[in-house]
Amino acid sequence: MYKKKNFFLSIYNLGIIKFGKFTLKSGINSPVYIDFRPIASKPKLLIELSHLLLEIVPSNKFELICGVPYAALPIATALSLITNIPLIIKRKENKGYGTKKMIEGIYKKGQNCLLIEDVITSGASLLKTIIDIEKEGLIVKNIISILDREQGGIENIKNIGYNIQSLFKIKEVINILNNKNILDKKKIDDLYFFLKKRKKNYEYKRISYEEKKRKISHFIGKKLIDITLKKKTNLIISVDLIYSEKILELVRLIGDKVCGIKLHSDIISDFSFSFINYIKELSIKKEFLLLEDKKLCDINSTNYLQLHHGIHKILSWTDIITVHVIAGEYSIRNLNIPSNIGLITISEMSSIGQLIDDNYIRKVLNVSLNNPKVIGTVAQRKVDDRLLLFTPGIHLSINNYTHPNTAFRKNCSDFIIIGRGIYKSLDPVKTIEEYRNIAWKAYESGLL
Ligand code: 5BU
Asked: What is the pTM of this model?
């Protein structure tokens, strides 16, 4: 214990804990930020840390070592050097060329790999590493995190069957600092308040539609929320059918239960403006908005032409249009979009193997927040509360899809987009009622 305490005080002096207001990778605000990277520059402390880790899991219990990138890499390297046990490296993203391997180094299927994480919060980054390591046929028998923020990450990882231990717990290190009179009372109170407030299993407290309506400024975003609250539905159905009569048939059946109907107008084989008149009429009668999933992605002048010309004339009927902003913020400026039409940017896609990374997402969120035409974004994670969050890739029973509970409670989504789950259902009316109940309850329980 003495060794541990002294070690902690030495690393604390390197500035690994900062107090203030921080937004964590997961989107939540925290009064404390912990960063183990400075230890990389202190070889003696790395060695000391390695010995402490070996007291938790001795070297005869593993054949390989891997650190969750990036902060745990030097720690894992030090452990490898003092034990002479080989290191493997997990990439954050694959190179996109060559072998496309996520794990680098020399290893054989069936080998037992010790995983090191620096700080565990929800366990999400750790889980990504576990998945990539297991894909290579390796076995993860033991995981050590240096510090547990006591926000449910350890339980999350244990719940899915892994043996994980932590060198320090946040409350333990607060005590160490407190006993040395290093922290003032306010900092300690803020920290305890924060730790108490965060729910178990790391589900965020989401904000209500009413509060969100106050945060956003675009008319069409507010209208979508009004419809949602009035009809008590946060479902947008993607009617990806290729004949207009089939689309209308389904929309007549389910229009009452949705806040939006999403179309890909360019897949409709018999697209016509009489179809548009019918669906527009339905959208007024049954009160839902129309979304055209155009995914504009070109330079500004081409985006302009695609919006204002061509056979679909989407600006003449849609309420919302989706856009990729890969061409940058100017690609969606001055497009002469009427004030009653909103844009939804695409920050992240739902497909397995999508090429978007964290940096790109951050940049899209910035572009979105700085363009008054943008009402929200598509993503598979929590984003800024000033944007409406739309989540596709939803299904109640298919594994690769996201469940509405995850979308609303964990990711704080505002609307889920469902396609095949409804239009391929043998009884779409019954199925949509099921989705609607589950999704509404998931939204409401996220508020608690
Ligand atoms: P599904 O049948 O529920 O998988 O249909 C989802 C719809 O949402 C479909 O029209 C896609 O084009 C659309 N989509 C998506 O699935 N994932 C994304 O990331 C984006 C759009 Br953006």
From this structure: 0.66
